[in-house]
Design a protein that fits this description.
Elements: H1 11-19, E1 47-52, E2 77-79, E3 85-87, H2 91-94, E4 100-106, H3 113-122, H4 135-143, E5 155-158, E6 175-177, H5 193-209, H6 215-230, H7 245-251, H8 257-271, E7 275-279, H9 289-314, E8 321-326, E9 330-331, E10 343-344, E11 348-354, E12 362-363, E13 365-366, E14 373-374, H10 380-391, E15 398-400, E16 406-408, H11 417-420
Parallel strand pairs: 1-7, 1-8, 4-12, 5-6, 5-7
Antiparallel strand pairs: 2-3, 4-11, 8-11, 9-10, 13-14, 15-16
Length: 421
C-alpha cells in the first residue's frame, strides 16, 4: 500500500523525509483479531465501486457488438439475463446483467489518454485554471463525514493510481493499495512505534510552524492518515487472503489480480469505505485486439466483475452499492492493418448498476456499423450524476475551487432518467 503524495512533493523528498524519522508507521502485527460484528461492518451504507479499464477498452467487441458489419470483428453476441446481448467471451457477466445497464451512446471529444482519463474521472474537461477532483474524492468529501467510526481511508484505489482530489484537498485523495492489500515499505517492528510517533510529531509540528502556506498541513495530513490506518483494527479489511478458499476461487484470486482487487473492494465497502476504484489496465489495443481480448482481458474481467456483482447481491449489499465500469474512451469501429482498434471517443459504452438503479436495460444506441450515435448521447457527467443520485448526494451540490469558482456536482449534468426511474 502506498500513500498518494501531495502535489509539489516529489517521491524522492517523501522517501527522504521518511528515512529521517518521520516515516509512515508500521502495520501492527499484534492486530490479529477479526472485525466482523454488526457494530463495525456497514453493509447498508451507500458506496460506489469504479471498475476502471485503463487504456480505453474496445466496447464494440464487448457491450455493443455489430454482427454482419464490416466493423463487427471476430466475436459473436450472446443472450444475457438482462434485455441485451453482449460478447460471447463474457458468459459469467451475462448471468448478472439483469443487475446492470449498458449505456451504449457515450460520446466525448477526448481521444487522448490523459485528457480522456481526466474527463471520465471528474466529469470536467481539463482546464489549465483549475484542477477538478476525481469523483471518488467527491464521494469521500460528501460521505466520509457521516461515517464517524470509519478509521481507514474513505477513498481507496486498488491496483493502480486514480486521479487526484483537486481543490477538495489531500484528505480526500485516493489511498493506493495493491490488489492483495499488502503494505509496501513498512517496518513491522512493534517496539519502534512510540519512538517514531514522537519523532513524527516533532518534525511535522516544526514544519507547520515555519508558516510555509498550506502545503505543510497537507504534508502532515498524509502522515496522520497513515497513523490512523496502521493502528486501526479495521485494517482487517485489507486481508483478502483471510477470505474462504471458495470465495477467493470465485473471484479467481490470487491468479486473477483484477478479480482479487474486486474481492478487496467488496471487503472495503463492507467495512464502510464509500468509494473504491479497481484498475484493470492493458486495453490500449492498437494491435492483435481479438487474441488479446479472448485470451487475457475478457476472462479476467468476466470472472472478477461477475463475482463482485453476485457476491454483493448474495450479501444484501448490491442495492446499496453502485458499480460503474468504464475506461477513458472506446476504440475505433474500423479494424486497422495490425488487427487492432485505435482511439475512439465519438461513440462507445459504459456499464452502471446496483445502488437501487434500474438494471437489465440498454440506454442509447449506435448505428449498424458502430460509428454514429442514434438518439441521445451521454457524457461522463450523466454517469456520475446517476451515481450521485443513487448515493444520496444532492444533485444541486456546489463545491468551490481554490480561486472561489463554483463547481456544480457532475458538471451540472442530469442523471440518466431511465436509470433512476
Amino acid at each position: 500500500m502506498s500513500l498518494q503524495i501531495p502535489d509539489g512533493m516529489s517521491r524522492r523528498h517523501f522517501m527522504r523525509h521518511m528515512a529521517a524519522g518521520a516515516t509512515i508507521l508500521p502495520a501492527m502485527q499484534f492486530m490479529n483479531h477479526v472485525v466482523a460484528n454488526a457494530d463495525t461492518v456497514r453493509k447498508n451504507q451507500k458506496a460506489c465501486i469504479l471498475l476502471w479499464m485503463s487504456g480505453g477498452p474496445p466496447t464494440i467487441d464487448m457491450w455493443d457488438l455489430k454482427p454482419g458489419s464490416k466493423n463487427g470483428g471476430e466475436f459473436s453476441p450472446i443472450s444475457t439475463k438482462g434485455d441485451m446481448q453482449i460478447s460471447e467471451h463474457l458468459p459469467k457477466t451475462a448471468m448478472v446483467m439483469d443487475e446492470l445497464s449498458i449505456v451504449r451512446s457515450m460520446s466525448t471529444r477526448e481521444a487522448d489518454h490523459n485528457r480522456g482519463r481526466y474527463y471520465l474521472h471528474t466529469g470536467f474537461v481539463p482546464n489549465p485554471t483549475v484542477v477538478h477532483p476525481t469523483f471518488g474524492s467527491v464521494v469521500s468529501y460528501e460521505l466520509a463525514a457521516t461515517r464517524k467510526d470509519l478509521q481507514i481511508p474513505s477513498f481507496v484505489s486498488v491496483g493502480g493510481g486514480s486521479m487526484g482530489p483537486g481543490f477538495l484537498g489531500m484528505a480526500n485523495a485516493p489511498f493506493r493499495v495493491g490488489t492483495d492489500g499488502r503494505i509496501d515499505n513498512v517496518d513491522n517492528s512493534k517496539d519502534r512505534l512510540g519512538q517514531r510517533l514522537n519523532m513524527l510529531a516533532e518534525v511535522e509540528s516544526n514544519f507547520i510552524n515555519s508558516k510555509r502556506g498550506e502545503f505543510p498541513k497537507a504534508h502532515k495530513d498524509v502522515y496522520t492518515k497513515a497513523v490512523n490506518l496502521m493502528t486501526s483494527p479495521q485494517m482487517e479489511a485489507f486481508e483478502v487472503r483471510k477470505e474462504s478458499a471458495e470465495t477467493q476461487a470465485a473471484y479467481g484470486a490470487p491468479t486473477n489480480r483484477f478479480g482479487q482487487g474486486c474481492l478487496l473492494a467488496r471487503r472495503l465497502v463492507e467495512q464502510g469505505v464509500p468509494f473504491v476504484e479497481v484498475d484493470l489496465g492493458g486495453w490500449d489495443l492498437h494491435n492483435d485486439v481479438f487474441n488479446t481480448l479472448r485470451d487475457q482481458r475478457l476472462p479476467q474481467l468476466d470472472q472478477g466483475m461477475s463475482a463482485l456483482v453476485a457476491d454483493l447481491k448474495q450479501r444484501g449489499m448490491l442495492e446499496h452499492t453502485v458499480i460503474v465500469w468504464m475506461g477513458e474512451f472506446g476504440r475505433t469501429p474500423r479494424i486497422n492493418a495490425n488487427v487492432g482498434r485505435d482511439h475512439w471517443a465519438a461513440s462507445w459504452s459504459t456499464v452502471i448498476g446496483g445502488g437501487g438503479l434500474k438494471g437489465g436495460q440498454v440506454l442509447g444506441a449506435t448505428d449498424k456499423d458502430g460509428i454514429g450515435i442514434e438518439g441521445t448521447s451521454y457524457t461522463p457527467g450523466n454517469i456520475w450524476a446517476s451515481a450521485a443520485h443513487a448515493l444520496g448526494i444532492p444533485l444541486d451540490t456546489v463545491h468551490t475551487s481554490k480561486r472561489g469558482r463554483p463547481m456544480r456536482l457532475a458538471n451540472g449534468q442530469p442523471p440518466i432518467s431511465e436509470l433512476i426511474g
